[in-house]
Amino acid sequence: MSQQQHKVIISLAANCDPEKNLAKARECLSRILSDTNYTRELWTEPFSAPHSSPLYLNQLVYATTCLGDEQLVGELKDIEKALGRTAEDRRQGRVRIDLDLMQYDEARHHLRDWDRPYIKALLLLA
């Protein structure tokens, strides 16, 4: 019996060694996602404090998974930790990797982020 596949959209972002960290994140995500379709990468100013920290490299992935939404979010947090994300880095404005579940089937998450210019731009790059 096959498990149900769920359609997801996940955002990826980094401002510390971003090319390397996004590549590592994509490798990790390949273990929990299937049918992946990544947008192009997009460089952006920090949303919360422009010009205060390095540029971000952002990307979206459209994919499927058999994981439940809470289990998927847990896996995303585990990947962030494995790639070195710490609370101290966050306080300092350093983001090694940020993985956010934006949509799970028809349910949208991180609702404020959907209106951010970089998310809108990435959606157009799909």
Note down, in words, how this protein is organized:
By secondary structure, the protein is an alpha+beta fold. The protein is 31% helix and 29% strand. Strands 1, 2, 3, 4, 5 and 6 form a six-stranded antiparallel sheet that branches. The mean pLDDT is 93.
Topology:
Elements: E1 6-14, H1 18-29, E2 34-38, E3 42-44, E4 56-65, H2 69-82, H3 87-91, E5 98-104, E6 107-108, H4 117-124
Antiparallel strand pairs: 1-4, 1-5, 2-4, 3-4, 5-6
The main β sheet shows up as: 6 strands, antiparallel
Q: Into which percentage range does the β-strand content fall?
A: 25-35%
Helix and strand run: EHEEEHHEEH
Q: What Rg, in angstroms, do the CA atoms define? A: 14 Å
In short:
It contains four helices and six strands.
Throw out a few tags for this protein:
126 residues, alpha+beta, six-stranded antiparallel β-sheet, 31% helix
